[in-house]
Specification:
Layout: E1 5-7, H1 16-23, E2 25-31, E3 34-40, E4 43-48, E5 51-58, H2 63-70, E6 73-78, H3 84-92, H4 100-104, E7 108-110, E8 116-118, E9 123-134, H5 145-149, E10 157-168
Antiparallel strand pairs: 1-10, 2-3, 2-6, 4-5, 5-10, 6-9, 7-8, 9-10
Length: 169
Amino acid sequence: MAEFRSINPQEIFDNPFKLFGSDWGLVTAGTQEGFNTMTISWGGLGLMWTKPVAITFIRPSRYTYEFLEQGDMFTICFFDEQYREALSFCGSKSGRNVDKVAETGLTPLFTEDGVPYFEEARLVLVCKKLYAQMLNEESVLGGDAVLKNYNGDDYHKMYISDIWEILTK
């Protein structure tokens, strides 16, 4: 496989609407001793407090949420279309019940700080949490987003994270 190289945020030419909305990504959190990954299709990229940031949304009921809450760092990995089946698997199975790495054949790597990501990714955002807040029905200002996306009270937690490093091949 090709080696990763670091790039600046201005060198990301991917459309973030496509990256999150149709390509999907894997959010991975934890350490070399234990981590979990899950597929995401909500998120964004931008600037906050003069920093390049990634925005992700994770439900507390997800196993990956536990790992996100335990540490400050995580990754968001994006893949070529040939990994669609692996992404689909990681979005439909819980790491509480299956070993996603063994089942998908994805190869975990770790940053110098021990943050997990995958060798097969084409783009990796190494993130450090800056701000987090639970979404709630009272804060939804318009439309029928609550009715379309929530059944009960399993609202997502929004993480706005400093992008510490961007890796690409």
